[in-house]
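Just wondering, can you check both lines?
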Amino acid sequence: MKPPGVAELAESPASRDGTGREDASGMASILLVDDEPSARITLALLLKRRGHEVREADGVRSATASLERQPFDIVITDLWMPDGQGLEVLDSARARCPDANVILLTAHPGWESAKEAMRLGAFDYFEKGQEPEELFRRIDTALAEQTARRTSQADPHPALPRPAADGERRYLTVLFADMRASMELLARRDLEEARQVLDGVIERMMDAVHGAGGTVNQVMGDGIMALFGAPAPQRDHAVRACRAALRMQDAVARYAAALRACDTGVQIRVGINSGEVIVRSVGSDLRWDYTAVGMPTHIAARMEQLATPGAIVLTSDTLVLVEAAMRTRPLGRVAVKGLPGGLEAHELLGLRAQHETPRWAVGPGPSARTLCATR
């Protein structure tokens, strides 16, 4: 008997809450697209046993028809099928069901598969041949991101999920920012006055990160490290990081202008990179933090070191995720320790016109007038 495709399945009578989710707690509506009947049916059964509603599609055409009829929380699609590519399913899902998170199934494991899936708008990818529990974990992560997205307007500061202590793989964006010539500032000025200047810079950098939905996971004297896409997953993590970088440069530049009478010469430099890292929690039950381990973190730090004061430098891995929203200029190939051939760097210049937003409102912080008056 031929396994049923989406077109042959009756619509579920279960009630919905208006977002495409089932009323039952923990249940998700999933569209599973794969032309291999045995693999599709087996995975569908496993997902149903976990309490999800599953609709099956045996190709691009049947998947598109299903997306036209009803909303889904998750779309899981094979990358290559006889009547088209999973990328067509991805495009259809984005057009007809924009709230859905799409997970691509690929038989080509490794770094390139991750980058390809993310740059095309997929939430995640899954390598065929892995244990299904890994796919279930990614589905849970995608649903958690949806929940956070749907409740963000009601609560702008929701509790963040705590990652497993042994870590999990996450494709995200890392940002490093620091203040130029902070040692010279400390040497020229009274210690307390220098501390107030530094605090004003750090506060403005942190405000920019938090305003863009990022997490500051380290404050390092005169600089910060921030993550976008962890602890809470974000589909637009790279764009958020770039927005944060532009906002902090603008905020610090205006802060420096107000301090100009004090002759401080305050400027910051920012480096950004995107890639797959291991994120994990460190600390105790009373206090815990995040760390991101992997080459992408080191590359982001290297981009910061390359940036001139007042500039933002990002990699090609970030550029492919933001080029529709951001204006950049190429800087050429640069040397990076551990990468024999180096990599291409780009300077972030600003938002493209259609993505421009009002000027960033800076938090209070130490006032320039107060600092100048202490001299």
Remarks:
- Residues 237-258 form the longest helix (22 residues).
- The mean pLDDT is 77.
